[in-house]
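If I may wish for something, please sit down with the protein I am sending here and say whether tokens and residues agree:
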Amino acid sequence: MLDNLELPENDRPIYQRLADAIGERIARGDLTEGEKLPPQREIAKALGLNVTTVTRAFSTLQQRGLVEARPGRGTLVAPRETDDPGFKSAPSDEAGLIDLSVNRPATSAYLEALSALLPRLSRDRRFPALQDYHPPEGPLWARTAVAGWLQDVAGDGDASRVVLTDGAQHGLACVLRALTQPGDVILVDQITYQGISALCRSHGLDLRGLPSDRDGMRPDAFEDACQTWRPRAVFLVPSLHNPTTVTLSEGRRRALATIARRHNVLIIEDDVYRPLLETSLPSFATLEPELTVYVGGLSKCVAPGLRFGFVVAPRAVLGNVAAALRIDCWSVSPLIPLIATSLLEEGTAARIIERQREELRERQAILAEALAAFDIQTHEASPHAWLHLPEPWRGASFARACRQRGVGVLPADAFAIGRETLAHAVRINVGAAPSRGELRQALGIIANLLNAGNFELSGAI
């Protein structure tokens, strides 16, 4: 099982190297789900280590969700649902599960608006253009609508600076493809949106996580990283950060922008949640317009099924972004831009967003009441919340315990950059429950688990 175990040769502490070595065997499948690990004293004796070192290694493995301790049975390899359990793009349809692990609209406002729009869409003067090819950046009339909507946020209302994409994730993919090379360093928060991690891996980019506090990425850490690693870009989610819900203050934004300017680091601003805020702060695209690539969309504020995103970039790089999109798919389908343009021009999008805000305020109030005794990081307009877990809970074990009781949440592991868990927390998507009643039910289950602590935790060491 652990025969011929060799610790990696690096400068990390011995207990972490031991955890890495055992974790590698779990990843390869040499150690399978439910398999019992040897007693800690046996491992210590075989490797010439003290028991305390092995105990710390086992604790590290538990924090990573790789092992769990069972009273009377020892330490077992923990179950793993998939190779990447955190990266989910659709809610589960599993019977009996209230899935709070995926962002989805809190109301049916988009469906109601779409039902009213579709019967008259064929009378729109732009309808005949739906059967034609379009430039890679998208139809001019749709880019004009987006530019107007973003007038005070990015691009100064200039449609020629807008590229339309099939959602913000597609926009990020086009930006990375156009503006980076394999091996480039990209800086992010240590806990951040999981989609950027997958994209950077697929593009061969070196993703580095930086420390954050409750106000967002720390400027001192950003400064040190710029001096040490000479990064190509920094990725930031400045409004209602996913998953921590932090909205960067104006002071923090200006501090980070100043550092980026000093070191000529491209800012990739993922601002998909900004429309949910009634009052928004200056974007990086307004603070540093020639250094910022702004990425937005309607998925988080209107509906993810709309798949309408956009990139606003400096003219010096805009052509590269459009070229990357042309290589991928020539151009986006014009049907979705026509629907989105109609919603924007008629004011329907604004009304949908206001309904979402109202519903989210109600759901956040339910959350605040149900989990008042615990450390919740959130905002009244946020579709998700960040729950810091009390001892002895760890993210992976808590998420498993929730799922066993019919509630889906995402542990911090799904958002962590690097191999170690950096926070003992879970993301709860308040908008994902089909109804307020089901949200109350799910939060009640979560509260009971938090209160039970050691009595419920099967994986405590």
